[in-house]
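Researcher: Let's do a round of design. I'm pasting the structure tokens now; please hold your answer until I've finished.
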């Protein structure tokens, strides 16, 4: 290779390195370094401020797994994920099928549909807290006026019902995104398939079962992945509606309480890395399912 061509090639490489260097430094400083420091914290003794820490291996991870409060938080998070993803997929498909057809005011309906997704989760939770308020909330007022209940209820005091109500608030914010994913998947299905099946005598249910659902599998995998990751990371809705109460505490609330309220950073970081591992496992499973559905 001539010297001039060699210099030109290496000059291009050097310019490329200089161009991506700020981004790499930002990623290293904001993501990689905190991850490394957090992992180091998770394998050291908790101790008190000012005291030297020592290496304890995986002891913090074992203690976190054996902690009854953390186990309850994991169980609550699993319930959030299971209920939220089920509602989002079922309701998302229903909304997408409904909005697929053109009708007067469809654009207005789509704009209203996107509104909950556009609102920050904290704002949504504050609005719904006004609805569930036990003293003068909208839900109690409505049910009392309809003579369905005789006295105000504390809706977020119970275990199962409180988790269900918080999940509904979470689904209210995520459902627009899931519906748009399904709507995009439906628009990619050729109309000729439905026309041909109609000629063969297939009704609406048979078309939905044998055409819509099979061809929506990639969209379902994407929507389930996004829904699962968002439900695993549920925090704002739980914290705004019910604080750090044990009956609705999610795993992220437990991480926050352990690390920042109790100042036990070692166990908090251990719990956070366990959550990251479970989230990565869910993501891997959904990616494999997506690859299989697109073959």
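Researcher: That's everything. Go ahead.
Model: Designed sequence:
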């Amino acid at each position: 290779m001539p010297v001039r061509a060699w210099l030109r090639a290496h000059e291009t490489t050097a310019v490329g390195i200089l161009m991506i260097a700020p981004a790499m430094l930002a990623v290293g400083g904001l993501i990689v370094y905190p991850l490394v420091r957090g992992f180091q914290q998770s394998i050291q003794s908790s101790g008190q401020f000012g005291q030297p820490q020592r290496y304890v291996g995986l002891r913090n991870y074992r203690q976190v797994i054996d902690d009854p409060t953390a186990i309850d938080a994991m169980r609550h998070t699993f319930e959030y994920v299971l209920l939220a993803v089920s509602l989002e997929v079922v309701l998302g498909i229903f909304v997408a099928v409904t909005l697929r057809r053109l009708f007067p005011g469809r654009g207005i309906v789509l704009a209203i549909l996107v509104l909950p997704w556009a609102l920050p989760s904290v704002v949504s939770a504050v609005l719904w807290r006004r609805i569930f308020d036990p003293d003068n909330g909208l839900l109690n007022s409505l049910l009392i006026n309809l003579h369905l209940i005789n006295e105000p209820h504390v809706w977020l005091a119970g275990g199962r019902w409180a988790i269900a109500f918080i999940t509904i608030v979470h689904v209210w914010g995520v459902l627009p995104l899931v519906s748009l994913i399904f709507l995009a998947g439906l628009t990619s299905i050729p109309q000729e398939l439905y026309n041909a099946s109609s000629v063969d005598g297939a009704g609406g249910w048979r078309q939905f079962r044998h055409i819509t659902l099979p061809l929506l599998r990639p969209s379902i995998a994407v929507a389930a992945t996004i829904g699962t990751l968002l439900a695993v990371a549920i925090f704002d809705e739980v914290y705004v509606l019910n604080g750090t109460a044990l009956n609705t505490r999610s795993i992220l609330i437990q991480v926050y309480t352990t690390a920042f309220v109790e100042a036990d950073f070692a166990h908090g970081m251990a719990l956070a890395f366990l959550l990251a591992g479970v989230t990565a496992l869910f993501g891997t499973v959904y990616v494999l399912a997506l690859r299989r559905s697109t073959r």
